[in-house]
Write a structure and sequence with these properties.
The protein is an alpha/beta fold. It is built from eleven helices and eleven strands.
Amino acid sequence: MSAVCDVLQEAQNRLAAAGSDEPEANAQWLLAYALGVSRTWVLANGREEVPPQEYKRFLGMLERKAEGEPLSHIVGTQPFCGLDIRVTPDVLTPRPETEELVELAAANFERGGQYEFLDMCTGSGCIAVALASKFPRARIMAVDISPAALKVAQENARLHRVEERILFLQSDLWENVMGAFDLIISNPPYIPTADLATLTREVQHEPRLALDGGADGYAVTRPLCEAADGYLKPGGLLALELCKDQPWPLARGLMEIGWKAEVKKDIFNVERFVFARKN
């Protein structure tokens, strides 16, 4: 048997040699999952021995990570807004920037209010489930074109016991949507097609449908915004996550057609979010 600290060092070296992102952190998370303990335990118990069965399991997961598979696909979950969100290869892995989108949008509403929210391009359902958890009297519509993604989103709603307040709808954007909403929130596919090949190996394992934003990156965002005002209640909020250099052109375009729009930065000081209301 090997000690935790030795196993971690070997794993970190293996992942670094393979060109993996954050080899040290990923080695720690994988070993914690293999042992059934917290990452904190792993860091605090470096001299403990790793049992053979768990070590064998760890090596199998380490090989998958070295080949570029996302950590979330290997362990099956990703933390998001204080929740453990189920993740599969059919959905985008939730990211810290999207957590911030949720928090910024949620700050505009009273926690005890009765609201109608729409999560467009819901994917794993992380945004819809987080909003349902934060607003116990809100009702949410979660929309996605992918039946496989909706299945994962429904599972996440059941896991967090909010399924009764979320309506899951398969729709190509607005095709099957009816109703009016206090908030329309979305993390749509926004990567320009030509840029997909430059993404990290981990990201390239994720579903292209959740990433590809067309030639200019706005293929989904543009029609989403063009019709959004017809689905917002008076004073309703549109909240979007985009990639670098996209928010201001979109915000200016919205302002030209009568919206009041602002751009906000993410935790990495990147201008990433557009928040808009129709005047």
